[in-house]
Every structure is written in structure tokens, then in C-alpha cells.
Specification:
248 residues; TIM Barrel; 8-stranded parallel barrel; 8 helices; 8 strands; 35% helix
């Protein structure tokens, strides 16, 4: 397993400097977050495709672990932008791309067909699609995640354990989907707070690593920290990196 950090962890950066800032924190691997209001947007990639490919190919201090297409499936031009990102991933040699599932209430068969279309196109570009586990969406229960993966051949799971802790009286058991996991996103969490300072939550990082080792998981453990009030975000990122690295 490798430790990575999301570009979304440093929202006040520019696309030119975010990779260097994460490298300064001694991260060797990075997830590129592509979102409507983020450092890098789908429009950026579409309009300046060759530029971003060159930026990523010229990186020397970090390697690229994954892409997170952090856009709601109902967004305009969703599939067109997804195709561009698949081309982008192929050009910069990134294998895993995370996507979000549809909101709760979306017909199951409709979601399956949508994901089949995404996976069909992605496979042609050598990209593995990971479906994010997320509260308020169809992936909020592990049983539904497992069912969707069985229905969509070639679909993986991007596991975010925080969504199975926050707003639950006790953590939800997600053992049944561990063998489908192709990417992991991490922060510390409690049942009442989605993100807390490192060490103040209930996420059992050591147990998670042991579980992933049992299914021969060898990809990224990606740190995804939002800024907390009155807390130095750079210090939190360093502490989280050291914690996760100590478990490997």
C-alpha cells in the first residue's frame, strides 16, 4: 500500500503549486481532485488538456495515484467530462478514477445502466472506475454497494470509512465489500463529526490496514482533510501522513 494526499487538502493553492506543497509535506503520491469549484475543474481539463497533461508528465517530486471526479452525476455535461477525464487519465498513466453514486431515491436499474456506460468507456482507456461510498447516496449501505458491483462488471469501490461512522450509533460493517476496494480515502471521524483532529476520532486505522492486507489491497490510502477552525492544516496533514505510514 502507498500513502497519498488529495489536492483538495490545500484549497488555497494553484494548479502550478499544489503538487510542490504536498511534496514539501513529504507526500510521494497525490490524488487529483477534479471538481466544479476546486483547484482543477472539468472545464480546466477540457479547455487546456495538453497543458495539464504536460504539467502532470513533468512532475518529479510526486507520483499520481488516482483522479477523483468529484461532480454530481446530474451535472450538465457529466458524461462528456468523464470521457475527457478518461483520456486525461490514460495520457498521464493514472489507472484509478473515483466517481460519485447517484442520490438515494434514484431507481436502482437506472444507476446500474449509468455505471455500466461509464465502466465500458473507462475500460477502453485502461481506467478502473471506483464508486465512492457516501452518505445520502446509493452507496450509503455496503449491501447496495456489493449488489451494484455484482451488476456492473469491472466496477470497483472507493472506500471512505467516514461515511460508515458519521451519523451512525456504531460503525457500519463493510467487510463484505473489501475485496472490491480499488481506492481508499481517509480522515478521522466520530459519530457526530465528519472530521476531527487526528487521534480524536473513532476510526480504527490499524484495523482497516489489517483488513485491507487480508484482501491483498496494494493501492493508495489517500488522505482527504478539510481545514478545521483554528487548526494548522499543514500540521494535521503531516500527522496524518506519519500515522498512516507507521501502519504499513
Amino acid at each position: 500500500m502507498i500513502v497519498a494526499a488529495s489536492t483538495a487538502c490545500i484549497p488555497d493553492s494553484t494548479p502550478y503549486e499544489v503538487f510542490d506543497r504536498l511534496a514539501d509535506l513529504e507526500f510521494m503520491n497525490v490524488e487529483i481532485s477534479v471538481s466544479k469549484d476546486g483547484i482543477i475543474t472539468p472545464k480546466d481539463i477540457s479547455d487546456r488538456f495538453d497543458f495539464y497533461v504536460q504539467v502532470c508528465r513533468s512532475l518529479r517530486r510526486v507520483s499520481l495515484a488516482s483522479i477523483f471526479y468529484e461532480v454530481d452525476p446530474l451535472a450538465p455535461d457529466y458524461f462528456d467530462n468523464f470521457k475527457v477525464l478518461c483520456d486525461f487519465a490514460k495520457a498521464i498513466k493514472v489507472v484509478v478514477m473515483t466517481v460519485r453514486s447517484s442520490v438515494v431515491g434514484t431507481p436502482y436499474n437506472e444507476e446500474v445502466e449509468r455505471l455500466r456506460e461509464l465502466v465500458r468507456f473507462a475500460i477502453g482507456n485502461g481506467v478502473l472506475v471506483g464508486l465512492l461510498t457516501e452518505s445520502g447516496r446509493l452507496t450509503e449501505t455496503p449491501s447496495t454497494v456489493g449488489s451494484i458491483c455484482k451488476s456492473v462488471k469491472g466496477l470497483g469501490v472507493t472506500l471512505d470509512p467516514s461515511h460508515y461512522i458519521y451519523n451512525h450509533t456504531k460503525p457500519v460493517d463493510y467487510d463484505m465489500i473489501l475485496d472490491q476496494v480499488c481506492h481508499v480515502r481517509l480522515r478521522d471521524t466520530t459519530p457526530t463529526q465528519f472530521q476531527v483532529r487526528i487521534g480524536q476520532g473513532v476510526l480504527e486505522f490499524n484495523r482497516l490496514v489489517i483488513q485491507l492486507n487480508k484482501v491483498n489491497y496494494r493501492r493508495a490510502l489517500c488522505i482527504d482533510l478539510a481545514e478545521l477552525p483554528n487548526i494548522d492544516p499543514m500540521s494535521e496533514l503531516r500527522k496524518m501522513r506519519l500515522l498512516v505510514e507507521s501502519l504499513l
